[in-house]
Amino acid sequence: MNVEKYLSNFFRGTKNPSLNAMNYLMNEFKHPEDKLKAIHIAGTNGKGSVTEMITNVLVKEGYTVGKYISPHLIKYNERISVNNKNISDNEMEKLINKINPLIEKYNSESDVPVTLFELETTMAFLYFEEKKCDFIVLETGLGGLYDCTNIIKHPLVSVITSIGYDHMHILGNTLPEIAYQKAGIIKDNSNTVIFEGQPDIDNVFINECKKKNNTLHIIKKTNISNYSFDNNFQYFDFDNFKNITINLKGKAQVRNACLCLEVFKILNKLGYHIKLKNIQEGLKTVIHKGRMEQLNDSPLIIYDGAHNEQAIKNLQDMVKMYYEKKKRIYIISILKRKDYNKMLELLAEDKDALFVLTSGNNQDKFASKEELYECMKKFVDSKKLYKKNLDDAIIDAMNYDSNTVNFIIGSFYTYGTVVDILKRNK
Question: CA neighbours within 13 Å on the CB side: how many for 241?
Fold first, then answer.
């Protein structure tokens, strides 16, 4: 079986929010998800970073850790891993063969077929059970309440990273409505960790935790002290955790790291032992592809999958922190379904930059370079705007001088193509 082809052709469609298919599949497999100790993570931005940090620390401590993420950057296998080693094609094929008869049975009796994400999530739970994982770290795919991963009933900890505008057609048009969907991962008699935000959002989590006898841990900015940074690391103290160093860039990553530190505090109270040295080492050595990832040294080419308003604001903060003295070029590809008007308006605040608009690597999914160009013209002098094919934009970026930094942004879905172009042209 060609696993990649099978998954590529699988039904992706969205449907009325429901966990019916997941309930059916988990029941048929005798509920593997109930046998696993889960840390469940939702949020508009920061889910991936928090997932990687928590996983890395627990692996350093010597635990067997299952990790479930989305989207993948190059291969589907990236979504399911144990101790940061991706599931193999052969292992995926065995799981697909095991699940497929049940999918066919369900589809024959249901109006709406099983989706790709339901298949992947079922594979993940079966794989983590088979590998006898001590912990699993699960990132929601979309929202929380009706997300496939929310079949988990008893997480050790739920983490909600941030709330911003994205997927409004599914999650709601206001931040409290979006927060309510994310709050779906808050479960009875457990723990939830958030970073203090605006009151109308925090109240959603406070109320949900009260209803469910869930202990809410709210991190405040005042819990962070002795902050400093250089080109390679950020340094800070958080409560009783001293001399914390993280290698991920930007202030948003400090907030994400604090969410993780609070999780470790909770796990220690629950009787799991995570030593300070492993926390320090784990946070300092995280590999997080596609997020401010340096793909080329000279000239600097940095890939960041920023694809919504909040992520662009985080990117702007990082540009000010690290790259203000360099010439800046943004190579931009954005999916049609995103609010690219707002994203481009924010990017245009960088008055000294040049902007290259591309049609991404899939004309059916991405806004055309012409559409992006016309939109960007409202905010930026057209002399600073260029329309290019993605391939040409990347090849040109490799030929700029060493004082130029190129940011490839707007979507995670161009990552594999960009890496491939760079490899072919180095």
Answer: 28
Contacts of 104 (CB under 8 A, 6+ apart): none
Give strand pairing partners of 405. 300, 328
Q: Sign of the C-alpha dihedral, residues 76, 82, 87, 92?
A: negative
Q: Are strands 404-409 and 385-387 parallel, antiparallel or unpaired?
A: unpaired
Sequence-separated (6 or more) residues with CB below 8 Å from residue 182: 42, 43, 44, 140, 143, 144, 145, 160, 163
Per-block mean pLDDT, blocks of 10 residues, the chain (426 long): 89 79 97 98 94 98 97 95 98 97 96 93 98 98 88 97 69 83 96 96 97 98 97 96 96 97 98 96 96 95 94 95 96 94 96 97 96 97 97 96 97 96 92
The string of DSSP codes covering 145-168 is TT-GGGG-S--SEEEE----S--H
SS3 label, residue 408: strand
Q: Is the peptide bond before 176 cis (omega within 30 degrees of 0)?
A: no
Instruction: Give alpha helix (H) positions in 43-184.
Output: 47-60, 89-109, 116-130, 168-171, 175-182
**Chain position carrying tokens 């992947």:** 120
Nearest to 125 by CA among 193, 2, 40, 214: 40
